[in-house]
């Protein structure tokens, strides 16, 4: 039988359905194309897809393949993290840590996720980010768009913390206990403390707010480490660092703070609300561990002569008496004590049951080290490093530290290290044209500081240096503090406790040693993760200087391209006899 040609109206209804579906699909695809290209939804969907891709990169096998490909030199560019990660701090993530215990503020301490739970991606800058205001103008104003968090300005503006004016946050220099300004407050303290004589150099400001106290102490040649947790104020440490003030995110909770014993000449608390006498005075004991013999402790605000806190104030005075602290003054709601120079006090009969630690206790062990309820003995560390015996500033910068002699040939190594870094820094500036000594660089980090020679060689520049002593290397951080510099212990197989985009220059000598176990020589973590973390804390257009063997520098250069840096490799300085190359890289200013 032959085919019969039916008119369109007589066609099978099934044929119509097929044609309708094909036409609908065609027009739907055209509609989606225009939607993706010409509307913001396309960007949103792309970001969502990118986030899915990034989360999949946290799969251990996929992560391992990506890391291996980058280190082998395959052309890979690490993707950007989602836009909501602009302020991400891996070890101080409120969403993750809020599930932990509240006891002694454990949940506000460092709690780092394992690498396999962390997407391998680069933290983007916020929308509207600008290159930071340069020092010293940044002490008084910063770009609002770099950290558009208005909460502190709204809540604390009347106390002089900060306020929003046009495109800037303005910092008048006030604080809760010094609303008229830090300058007047420091002048008041100088009636009782030798602030401007060179006797005091290193200070610790606990619960620092936006760090105006430490910022204005710089004019007195006092270098202050300001710290606060990532709490309800959220961005206080981020504001401090954007202002060019030394600062660090930390919580005095269940562990020792990551500083050596007897390193700070002055410890300050202005309404820091630390319960010093709680848990058998555990927090006061930690302050005593940090405070140099003969140093000063200043507490302003509760409970000092504070309404309805008579018992707390009485207990605080009782602990100070039990430790034989000399009461210098009580001025309104501010109390000033001086720590005794010698171990002349404990053991004694006291209501808090305070006892001295055993001789075998190392008071400078402070990386993930639980707080102790015993008082660190000054005699546990040999040497003359108390206030009055240690040289005044600036002589103490180059004078041999009494604690450097605890290492084999320590005094000779210390002197050679100091001279070596003077030569190296001059080479960085004059031959490699690193912008040290210019307004472009204010916040500097040395990731493997040893005796702090790199920082000491920069002392004439308008910079401050965070000297990091790796926790598994010889404990030389006490020497760094003795010479009037500051720093912390850290393990570089974990993220650092700071916000993104907080350092202008990051320096590291022997980067591969940060990845290996010192005893066995086995690799503990990988170079890619370390350099992604360096990228997180480095500002756009910031500089990285890395020195190591030629083979390591070649690997570093491959990873540098993957994290979107512009690297160049240079020969070492002519006077050096080591087998090294130097990589200088610039972080590109990219945006989502």
UniProtKB/TrEMBL annotation:
Organism: Lupinus angustifolius (Narrow-leaved blue lupine)
PANTHER family registered for this protein in UniProt: PECTIN METHYLTRANSFERASE QUA3-RELATED (PTHR10108:SF763), SAM-DEPENDENT METHYLTRANSFERASE (PTHR10108)
GO MF, one annotated term: S-adenosylmethionine-dependent methyltransferase activity
Keywords attached to this entry: Glycoprotein, Membrane, Methyltransferase, Signal-anchor, Transferase, Transmembrane, Transmembrane helix
Pfam family for this entry, one: Methyltransf_29
Signal peptide: none
EC number(s) recorded for this UniProt protein: 2.1.1.-
Residue stretches spanning the membrane: 21-41
Protein's name according to its UniProt entry: Methyltransferase
Compartments it resides in: Endomembrane system; Membrane
Family listed: Belongs to the methyltransferase superfamily.
Annotated Gene Ontology cellular component terms: endosome; membrane; trans-Golgi network
Bilayer topology annotation: Single-pass membrane protein; Single-pass type II membrane protein
Protein's UniProt keywords contain NADP: no
Gene Ontology biological process terms in this record: methylation
């Amino acid at each position: 039988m032959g085919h019969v040609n039916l008119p369109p109206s007589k066609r099978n209804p099934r044929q119509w359905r097929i044609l309708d579906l094909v036409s609908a699909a065609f027009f739907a695809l055209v509609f989606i194309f225009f939607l993706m290209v010409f509307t913001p939804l396309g960007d949103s969907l792309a970001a969502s897809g990118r986030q899915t891709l990034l989360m999949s990169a946290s799969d251990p096998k996929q992560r391992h393949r990506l890391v291996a490909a980058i280190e082998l030199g395959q052309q890979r560019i690490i993707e950007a993290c989602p836009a909501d990660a602009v302020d991400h701090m891996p070890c101080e993530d409120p969403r993750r840590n809020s599930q932990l215990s509240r006891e002694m503020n454990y949940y506000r301490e460092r709690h780092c996720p394992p690498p396999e739970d962390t997407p391998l991606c680069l933290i983007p800058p916020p929308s509207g980010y600008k290159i930071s205001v340069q020092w010293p103008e940044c002490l008084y104003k910063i770009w609002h768009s770099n950290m558009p968090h208005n909460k502190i300005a709204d809540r604390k503006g009347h106390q002089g913390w900060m306020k929003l004016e046009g495109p800037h946050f303005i910092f008048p220099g006030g604080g809760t206990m010094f609303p008229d300004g830090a300058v007047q407050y420091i002048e008041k303290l100088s009636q009782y403390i030798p602030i401007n004589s060179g006797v005091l150099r290193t200070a610790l400001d606990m619960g620092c707010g936006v760090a105006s106290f430490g910022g204005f102490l710089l004019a007195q040649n006092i270098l202050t480490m300001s710290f606060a947790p990532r709490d309800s104020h959220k961005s206080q440490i981020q504001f401090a660092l954007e202002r060019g003030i030394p600062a660090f995110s930390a919580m005095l909770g269940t562990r020792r703070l990551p500083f050596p014993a007897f390193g700070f000449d002055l410890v300050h608390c202005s309404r820091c609300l630390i319960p010093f006498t709680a848990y058998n005075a555990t927090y006061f004991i930690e302050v005593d561990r940090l405070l140099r013999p003969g140093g000063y402790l200043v507490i302003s605000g509760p409970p000092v002569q504070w309404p309805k806190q008579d018992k707390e104030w009485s207990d605080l005075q009782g602990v100070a008496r039990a430790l034989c602290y000399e009461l210098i003054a009580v001025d309104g709601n501010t109390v000033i004590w001086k720590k005794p120079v010698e171990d002349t006090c404990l053991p004694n009969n006291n209501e808090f049951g305070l006892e001295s630690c055993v001789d075998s206790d190392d008071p400078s062990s402070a990386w993930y080290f639980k707080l102790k309820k015993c008082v660190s003995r000054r005699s546990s560390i040999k040497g003359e490093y108390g206030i009055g015996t240690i040289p005044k500033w600036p002589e103490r910068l180059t004078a041999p530290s009494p604690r450097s002699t605890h290492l084999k040939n320590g005094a000779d190594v210390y002197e050679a290290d100091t001279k070596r870094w003077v030569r190296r820094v001059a080479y960085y500036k004059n031959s490699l044209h690193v912008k040290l000594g210019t307004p472009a660089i204010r916040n500097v980090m040395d990731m493997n500081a040893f005796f702090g020679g790199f920082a000491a060689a920069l002392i004439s520049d308008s910079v401050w240096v965070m000297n990091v002593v790796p926790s598994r290397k010889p404990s030389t951080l006490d020497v760094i503090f003795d010479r009037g510099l500051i720093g912390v212990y850290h393990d570089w197989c974990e993220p650092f406790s700071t916000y993104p985009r907080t350092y202008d220059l990051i320096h590291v000598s022997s980067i591969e040693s940060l990845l290996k176990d010192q005893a066995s020589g086995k690799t503990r973590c990988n170079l890619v993760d370390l350099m992604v973390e360096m990228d997180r804390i480095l500002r756009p257009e910031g500089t990285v200087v890395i020195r190591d063997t030629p083979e390591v520098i070649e690997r570093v250069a491959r990873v540098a391209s993957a994290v979107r840096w512009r690297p160049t490799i240079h020969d070492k300085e002519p006077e050096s006899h080591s087998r090294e190359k130097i990589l200088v890289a610039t972080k590109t200013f990219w945006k989502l």
